[in-house]
Amino acid sequence: MVAIVGGLGAAVVFAIGTLCNSRSSRMIGPSALLGWVMLLGLAIIAVPVAVDGIPDGLDAESLGWMAVAGIGNVVGLLLAYAALRLGKVGLVAPVVSTQGAIAAVIAVIAGESISPGVGVLLAVIALGVFLAGSSEDLAETGSRLDRRAALYAVLAALAIGASLYAIGRVSSALTVAWSLLPSRVLGVVAVTTPLVLRSELRLTRPALPLVVTGAACEVGGFALFAWGARHGIAITAVLASQFAVVSAVAAYFLFGERLAPVQVLGVTTVVVAVSILSGIQAG
Predict the structure, then answer these.
(1) At CA 211, angle to CA 67 and CA 225, rounded to 5?
(2) What does R_g of the chain's alpha carbons equal in angstroms?
(3) Please, are residues 217 and 243 in contact by the beta-carbon 8 Å criterion?
(4) What is the pLDDT of residue 236?
(5) Residue 254's CB: how many other CB atoms inside 10 A?
(6) Hey, CA dihedral for 13, 14, 18, 20, is it positive or negative?
(7) Using CA atoms, how far apart are residues 6 and 226, in angstroms rounded to an integer?
């Protein structure tokens, strides 16, 4: 059940972050947004990292996975923010949300054992997530969503998917705070610092609350994922990808965006499949 709770919790937090980032990335640009998210994220986890001290499981293998997690996360988020700046949330989110399925596939290929029934349910949930994040505009991607946004979203899903798997591997040997540290350190060094040196780390008053919330959600979402992944990377990764579902439903209530019939089908599919999966895991 821990994998389910961690995955669902991460989905909700990631969805809130996605809604905030879609606005702030257009206000200050994807690079500046990532710079602030990494800087604020590092400040958030600094205390728990210091309290934990250097963990006993820190070895060459864990350092390697930390590097993969850091690079994949930073590159993936930059691409995702760029996609959100160019395209609609309802079109970009379902593509980026396949990061969970990618992480799950990597986990299974790497030898993580899941029962055939659970595997089928995860596939159904992944399909439901994509349908829930879809809209009638998908058929018009060529004209209503910049092709670069679609490409950025695909590349972001691949990078973050690899990062999610690496974070899952790191979290099994180290603390949650340490599993999140590489991305923030790398992001501050490679993104934030150069922006500061070029005087390009800008932040406007209207964007401030959105950036702070987005940074907190980025850390919180990955922390919940890391916690759940200790008990099953594949399950947690697929459930975390439900942020596309939550985003679609939230946009309906917050912004009055209409849910297309295919989206309603997707949400229903996910709810039913998750309920069945929860029952299986609880049993």
Answers:
(1) 45
(2) 18
(3) no
(4) 87
(5) 9
(6) positive
(7) 8
Question: The domain containing residue 258 runs over which residues?
Answer: 2-282
Look at the pTM and tell me if it is higher than 0.85.
no
CA–CA separation, 256 vs 249, rounded Å? 10
Longest Cα separation, the chain: 56
Q: Which two tokens stand for residue 118?
A: 């659970």
| Token output for 234 | 């594949």
Tell me the pLDDT tens digit for each residue of 139-192. Answer: 454 545 456 777 888 899 899 999 989 998 888 888 889 989 999 999 999 999
List C-alpha distances in Å: 273 to 82, 103, 113, 142, 277: 32, 19, 19, 32, 6
> What is the pLDDT of the chain when averaged over all its residues?
83
Q: Closest Cα to residue 183, out of 154, 226, 213, 123? A: 226
Q: Are 189 and 34 in contact (CB under 8 A)?
A: no
For the chain, give the secondary structure using H, E and C.
Answer: CHHHHHHHHHHHHHHHHHHHHHHHHHHHCHHHHHHHHHHHHHHHHHHHHHHHCCCCCCCHHHHHHHHHHHHHHHHHHHHHHHHHHHCCHHHHHHHHCCHHHHHHHHHHHCCCCCCHHHHHHHHHHHHHHHHHHCCHHHHHHHHHCCHHHHHHHHHHHHHHHHHHHHHHHHHCCCCHHHHHHHHHHHHHHHHHHHHHHCCCCCCCCCCHHHHHHHHHHHHHHHHHHHHHHCCCHHHHHHHHCCHHHHHHHHHHHHHCCCCCHHHHHHHHHHHHHHHHHHHHHHC
C-alpha to C-alpha distance for 131 and 244, rounded to whole angstroms: 9
Structure tokens at 51: 């309290």
Number of domains forming the structure of the chain: 1
Considering Cα of 106, then 162, then 80, then 182, what sign does the dihedral take? Answer: positive
